[in-house]
Amino acid sequence: MTEWDLRKLRILRTLAERGTVTATAETLLMTPSAVSQQLSNLSKQLGVPLLEAHGRRVRLTGAAHLVLRHAEAVFAQLESADAELAGYAQGEAGRVRLAAFSTAVPALVVPAVRALRRSHPGLELRVREAEAAESYELLAAGEVDLALSLAAHAPSAGDARFTRVPLSEDPLDVALPPGHALAEVPELRLADLSAEPWIFGGSGPWSEITRTACEAAGFVPEQAHSAAGWTAILALVEAGMGVALIPRMVRARAAGVVVRGLPHDRPTRHVIAATRRGAATAPATARVLAALRAAASSAE
């Protein structure tokens, strides 16, 4: 029977994710030569070539992709085993590491923490602010247990490494300067703002969300100012320098501007949580997920 070495399989999986031996070594705190040696030994154990030269780099062979396809099922089963063991070992205590995008921290994470402190005081939640791409890198590397992100910027639902859990729909509102001519217009539509100067980031998720919503309403927004943080965006709007789409999650911080809903356009972003596949049933992780769902329901 073929000998399967889990440690070496993890190295192979990391190489598939990171792309180079050097990046793999940095992620796993190994030397590049040690990574190469371990993968060479794995190739000998399995009796198939796993790497092939590709210019000055290496790439995975078809056999390596086949091995990884089966290995993912093994890793998921081991995550499930770890989850069950955690239930016996931790009971009501434990630590969950969570990566979350910035607006989710005050809107979802903080209410969840407050609820967990009352219901499960022995449960510790460690929070790390991170955008979607970084969150999933941290999750895949085992540095966090949960990742909060937007569905539009998460890996596909078919990614075998993760389990996605829908949390909430966060409507997008429009922020207008005080005294704006359209501030009191009934049944405001996004298209009514097509001639306005717009404020959004030069790149990244919020730039894509704003452009996509406006294009769906039939126009391309004129970007008058570029800002990524909500404090800066709302300050620019308050100063009468333009209008902006803002998530419902930050509405409480928009005291100096006029915020209007867009019921006809209904632009929405979808908030999800993700775990490594097989880990969602770990008692501590499941409790945090339940608290996040409750916080999301309360916020709607």
Summarize this structure briefly.
This protein has 300 residues and is of the alpha/beta class. It contains nine helices and eleven strands. The strands form three sheets. Strands 3, 4, 5, 6, 9, 10 and 11 form a seven-stranded mixed β-sheet that branches. It has a two-stranded antiparallel sheet with strand order 1-2. A two-stranded parallel ribbon has the order 7-8.
Explain what you see:
The chain is of the alpha/beta class. The protein has nine helices and eleven strands. Strands 3, 4, 5, 6, 9, 10 and 11 form a seven-stranded mixed beta sheet that branches. Strands 1-2 form a two-stranded antiparallel sheet. The chain is globular. The mean pLDDT is 88.
